[in-house]
Design goal:
By secondary structure, this protein is mostly helical. Helices cover about 80% and strands about 0% of the residues. It has helices at about 5-20, 25-35, 35-60, 65-70, 70-105, 120-135, 140-145, 160-185, 195-215. Helix 5 (about 70-105) runs antiparallel to helix 6 (about 120-135). It is globular and about 65 Å long.
Length: about 220
């Protein structure tokens, strides 16, 4: 297999991996609906920073520690589960506060401006959310360790090839999720009604908690 063939196959495989839904997709969609394109982009950038870190760790062999040490893997897995559950609980609490706020103001929940500007510093908060969502998932590190080496052609220097694949994978992931942000923001007006946004908050909260629990109890 030539270098070009390897890159082509890797690009296709990376795109399919990026398209697979997971915690990252839920968090990015939720932030894009909640605070618009800047928040969605910031979340994507945080996620890609985390993914690039995992890929670089795999290239330098650091991710192998997760395979060699069950304790290290379990500690990171439980921490990642706690992060996902925390994000989910925050979404559920926001939905409950919205109901109480509507009740106290006498709003029917179907009107009002739900597109208020995000809080100052929320882009940095979204970046951290995307970063933590990715870094707190040890399966991402194990996957990177097993995924990247499969596409290193024979006869090339392994480390430079792995670093190139890490950058290519991150760029493909970046383009895909930025496309998700653009698509979500195109239909964002449909989710501006407070009742609809509360349902989105509830749904994303339940999904994140479920993913966190699955990560915690999974092997």
């Amino acid at each position: 297999m030539t270098v070009f063939d390897a890159l082509l196959l890797f690009a296709l495989a990376s795109l399919l991996v990026s398209m697979a839904p997971g915690p990252t997709t839920v968090v990015i969609i939720r932030q894009s609906l909640d605070a618009g394109r800047p928040a969605g982009v910031a979340t994507v950038l945080g996620n890609e920073t985390g993914w690039l870190a995992w890929c670089l760790a795999a290239a330098f062999g650091l991710s192998a520690l997760l395979l060699a040490s069950r304790l290290a893997y379990d500690v990171l897995r439980i921490a990642g589960a706690a992060v996902l559950v925390w994000f989910g609980v925050q979404a559920l609490l926001r939905a409950r506060r919205s109901i109480r706020r509507d009740a106290s103001t006498g709003s029917p929940g179907g009107t009002g401006d739900a597109s208020a500007a995000p809080r100052r510093g929320s882009r940095w908060r979204c970046y951290r959310m995307g970063l933590l969502t990715n870094l707190a998932n040890p399966k991402a590190g194990v996957f990177a360790l097993s995924f990247l080496p499969q596409f290193v052609p024979d006869g090339v220097l392994v480390l430079p090839a792995l670093l190139l694949l890490a950058v290519v994978s991150t760029l493909i992931d970046l383009v895909w999720y930025l496309g998700v942000v653009v698509a979500v923001c195109q239909v964002r007006r449909l989710f501006q009604r407070p009742t609809v946004r509360r349902r989105v908050e509830y749904l994303s909260g339940v999904v994140l908690v479920a993913l966190g629990v699955r990560l915690a109890v999974g092997d």
